Structures are given as C-alpha cells and as structure tokens.
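call fold(seq) -> tokens
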Amino acid sequence: MKKIISVFGILAFAVGLSACNTMRGIGTDIERGGEKVQGAATDVQKGNTSSGSSR
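ret:
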C-alpha cells in the first residue's frame, strides 16, 4: 500500500513540475504580447502608425 501511495505521490509531483513549466511559458507569451500592445500604443500616441494611413 505504501508503494502505491509513493508512486502516486511521485506522479503528482512530476505533473506539478510540468505544469509550472507550462505556466511559465504562458506567462512569457502574455508578457511579450503586452509589450507588443504597449509598443503599438506608444506608436499611436507619437503618430507613428505603421499602416501608412493618416486621418
């Protein structure tokens, strides 16, 4: 019985570690997306739109 509990504990730990790496990757992606949005907002404020259209 202790062996089964130990195996499940190790498996839960391994799943937890892989979830941390996944969450770190998602956080990095979200951060990069935020930087792009921030850069676009700064460009709009300065009037430097890359679309080439002016109002």
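The first helix runs from residue 2 to 46.
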